[in-house]
Amino acid sequence: MYVQKYLVEKAICSRKEAEVFLREGLILVNGKKAKPGVPLSPTDTVTLTPAAQRRLREKVTVAIYKPRGIVCSNVQEEGRTVFDIFPQFKHLNTIGRLDKESEGLLLLSNDGLITKRITGDTHDVEKEYEVKVQEHVSNTRLAPMAEGIMLSDGQTLPATVEATSKHSFRIVLREGRNRQIRRMCGAIDLTVTSLKRLRIGELTLGTLKPGNFRKLTLEEIQSLRDPQASSRT
């Protein structure tokens, strides 16, 4: 195993960050600067220099409640953006976008590892949504969503779906295609009237109100950087 992969698997940093640290001599193996292309042995000890550790501490991740009618973009032509509401976070990136008419939990971050964990193709971070529709729903009618639906960009992964009333249901996804839930609903003739994201991994919307934010705790950040951590404790 190479040192970059080791750091990613230990949820220390992203691969891109590891490559930068390696190039700048900020990774130590047994107290000496790591060399590119040299695999680790089982007895090696890997540490980061104080400079690399300071950079990682400067990472910021914020949970916001995105209101309806707001876009997850910094392009003004598309309408009012999350960065108009939160100008102090313009240096951060949105993770796992919500379309303009959707609302709920959204993350802003400059942490490459969290971005990769949530938006990457490993599908190990759940996203939970509350969906309201015009038509009557039941678990039977929603079954195709649970099994996976063929969309224009391929078959969706199986999902956890449960009707919560005659006109609403909750769905848990492990992927994040463009307007996925709306398209899945359209495939079974359901018309979405409201879509709210409630949860990303173990992080919930909680008591946040539309247009409000809070910074994540160290424990919450670690749960997003390493989704398997809670299952090991």
TrEMBL record:
Family, as annotated: Belongs to the pseudouridine synthase RsuA family.
Gene3D superfamilies xref list: Alpha-L RNA-binding motif, Pseudouridine synthase I, catalytic domain, N-terminal subdomain, RNA-binding S4 domain
Keyword line: Isomerase, RNA-binding
Top EC class for this record: isomerase
Cited Pfam families: PseudoU_synth_2, S4
UniProt-recorded name of the protein: Pseudouridine synthase
Domain named RNA-binding S4: residues: 1-61
Listed CDD domains: S4
Alphabetized PANTHER family for the sequence: PSEUDOURIDINE SYNTHASE FAMILY PROTEIN-RELATED, RNA-BINDING S4 DOMAIN-CONTAINING PROTEIN
Alphabetical list of PROSITE patterns matching this protein: PSI_RSU, S4
Lyase among keywords: no
Gene Ontology molecular-function annotations: RNA binding; rRNA pseudouridine synthase activity
EC number(s) per entry: 5.4.99.-
